Here is the input.
Amino acid sequence: MNAALHSNLASSREAFAPALTRWFKHNARPLPWRENYDPYHVWISEIMLQQTQMERGVTYFQRWMSQLPCPRSVTQAKEDEVLKLWEGLGYYNRARNLMRAARVMVDRHEGRVPADKAALLALPGIGPYTAAAILSIAYERDEPLVDGNVARVLARVFDLDAPVGETATQKALWALAGELLPPGQARDFNQGLMELGALVCKPLNPTCETCPLAELCEARRLGIVQHRPVPGKKVDITALSIATGVLIHQGRIFIQRRRDEDVWGGLWEFPGGGVENGETPEQAVVREYAEETGFAVTTLGPIRVIKHGYTRFRVTLHCFFLAPVNGLGTPALTAATEHKWATFAELDDHAFPAGHRKLIDSLARDSRFAKLLGQDPLL
Here is the structure.
């Protein structure tokens, strides 16, 4: 590195934090967890915002706080209640880890979110990023942090030419964030980095002309903003064809609760499973019901086909109305821990995977469903 370039990078680092924190003080969004920076609020918001858009996260956060305002209240809630509050956010193990962590807080930390880094990292669901967020934002400790927004800002401003997902690049990003962090200003600095990445230094169509770091940004100077950060390998998406069915008997609907160790463990569902080679979705749902419940069923017709994308999967969900072939006794559950015959209204009291919740929404608008239940149209 020549002396002039080294001098430019050094001056950029010196100017970075003041420009960023000034910008944040004038542009910070009025988010509910920023009202008093309560450690519990910061913790819940950070967990919720993983893989969740901000506007949606705010809605979930406010609903959560209205029912579970402190760690002790989480330990007193039933799992079904917690999962219902979490329904739609996905990655339900995060909700279970919140419950486990809250129990530790009550048992070992007087019902509070600990302010010690080692204690935080010992809690279920809290890794280096979340611990750093809690310490720096809630407790104003000088802890750097790196998430996707932060990585993008740093990769552009300092022209990092390696994929940000690689281990070596992550180490370099965390080290750089630590070097840039001004002592005593971690709350504004870290939030400013994340806010800038979310509002200005966006993945697509960044508004560089409004960026407080525009004059410091190497990617902008070189005209390569669209090439930073360097992408990693694309994730392979697996296509899954699934068949499921709504079994109605005497005005009630059969649902079952998934095993805890399964995908979407602990959530409720309509039984079903993968369509195997050589069979139709209608054949698959009949077979799956027999295998999972012991019930002999027949299809009464399709409801709809639902397509839903997850991180690594693209699911095509074939949905059918079902009726029993013979009498129905006690189910022999092989893929669930419990079952219920629920009214349609009671479905809202249970947490379902996103695809099944879409199916429930469709049922509310389907006149055939109302007739099968033996009642007037629902809408």
Remarks:
- DSSP finds 15 helices and seven strands in the chain.
- Residues 3-27 form the longest helix (25 residues).
- The CA atoms of residues 4 and 10 lie 10 Å apart.
